[in-house]
Design a protein that fits this description.
By secondary structure, this protein is an alpha/beta fold. The chain has 15 helices and 15 strands. The chain has two domains: 241 residues, Alkaline Phosphatase, subunit A; 144 residues, no CATH class. The longest helix is centred in the last third of the chain and has 24 residues. The chain is globular, with a radius of gyration of 21 Å.
């Protein structure tokens, strides 16, 4: 038996007034999902426990079968694992976004125009991070370059407890009221302000402005955490597995869980990612000997953050295609399989950020095609079945039975 998780990050959402009161998941053409729903267990599950912020960190840990209460130590340490940063027990890590802020002065009067600086390329970002490192790489701090707008700051002997806001939570909002506060906040805010001075007139940003692109004119620090310790997935569940994702967060969970990180050429983490490549890589890995593959697709979430309804619908349709392709490859090879399809959390278009609402899931077994009444796969159909999993982290054990 082969096991596949097809995760469309942020795929769920709220009804859209201008689209007949349907969600993007309901609006998307997903013939494979809908056909599978008729012979699957369909319901909702709570991926974000009470007391936790609705982030992809907590939610993906839950879906992967790790109880956040036992394993979660913050978002950025998970990303640090993917980048390959050797963390000490005394280290505190922070996610470092390259963002686009408005030009008002002082810093406190600026607005968060773009939490991703126009999905800045990794090559451009590395040049900007290199410019910042000349000033910020001084004990106890070290800045590490990641992918696109996602980077990491490590503070040796740092303290947790600073009040930090994810930049995607305040799109198009003034930054006042969302700047660092509490333990260690003065030093972090000083770095953010200084980064603005360094980056604003950097040649990379001059070229971006000339090309009509958003400049990466500041860093934004958030997602603090300490060194995590995850029990190996194979030790927990007895399955050899892999993870496919374009983002450091999910790759990092894979690294810490002892899963094989499978890189796919052209995987961007957005709507233009190589969906077909991810499908092929997942099927190849399963037919090549792995028992379990976790296929993470960030695109619906990114489109939700940007409020782009059409591209989110398109991305969901591509997730449907990925699931269909993997299924067809396994059937053709005569391999029985179990497939779990779900988002990690909703990212409603109207809010442009995450919520902690339960998400719809579909659990299919090729050797037990038994449904529980759902005629399609979307939020409304999942709620109507009456099946609710209050702790998503407990579903993995049943999924892998």
């Amino acid at each position: 038996m082969k096991y596949i998780v097809i995760l469309g990050d942020g795929m769920a959402g709220y009804p859209l007034a201008g689209r007949g009161g349907k969600t993007t998941l309901a609006l998307a053409r997903t013939p494979f999902f809908d056909e599978l729903a008729k012979k699957s267990l369909v319901g909702v599950m709570k991926t974000v426990p009470e007391g936790y912020k609705p982030g992809s960190d907590v939610a993906n840990l839950s879906v992967m079968g790790y109880d956040p209460a036992l394993y979660y130590t913050g978002r950025s340490p998970l990303e640090a694992a993917s980048i390959g940063i050797p963390l000490k027990d005394s280290d505190v890590t922070l996610r470092c976004n390259l963002v686009t802020l408005s030009e008002e002065e002082p810093y406190e009067k600026k607005t968060m125009l773009d939490y991703s600086a126009g999905e800045i390329s990794t090559e451009e970002a590395r040049e900007l991070i290199a410019a910042l490192k000349t000033e910020f790489d001084k004990p106890p701090s070290t800045l590490y370059a990641g992918i696109s707008y996602r980077h990491c700051l490590v503070i040796d002997g740092g303290k947790t407890g600073c009040g930090l806001t994810p930049p995607h939570d305040i799109s198009d909002q003034p930054v006042a009221g969302h700047l660092p506060k509490g333990t260690g906040s003065e030093a972090l805010l000083a770095m953010m302000k200084r980064s603005c001075e360094i980056l604003s007139r950097h040649p990379v940003n001059e070229r971006r402005r000339a090309a009509g692109k958003n400049p990466a004119n500041s860093i934004w620090l958030w997602g603090e955490g300490t060194k995590p310790r995850l029990t190996a997935f194979e030790d927990l569940y007895g399955k050899r597995g892999g993870v496919i994702s374009a983002v450091d967060l999910v790759k990092g969970i894979g690294v810490l869980a002892g899963l094989k990180v499978i890189n796919v050429e052209g995987a961007t983490g957005n709507w233009d990612t190589n969906f077909a490549g991810k499908a092929a890589a997942a099927a190849d890995a399963l037919l090549g000997g792995l028992d379990f593959v976790y296929v993470h697709m960030e695109a619906p979430d990114e489109c939700g953050h940007h409020g782009d309804t059409d591209k989110k619908i398109y991305s969901i349709e591509q997730v449907d295609m990925v699931a269909k392709t993997v299924s067809e490859r396994l059937r053709a090879a005569g391999e029985p399989f179990c497939m779990l399809i779900c988002p990690d959390h909703p990212t409603p278009i109207a809010l442009k950020t995450h919520t902690a609402d339960p998400v719809p899931f579909l659990l299919y077994r090729s050797n037990e095609e038994t449904g529980n009444g759902a005629a399609r796969y979307d939020e409304e159909a999942a709620m109507a079945t009456g099946l609710c999993i209050p702790r998503a982290c407990e579903l993995m054990k049943a999924f892998l039975r």
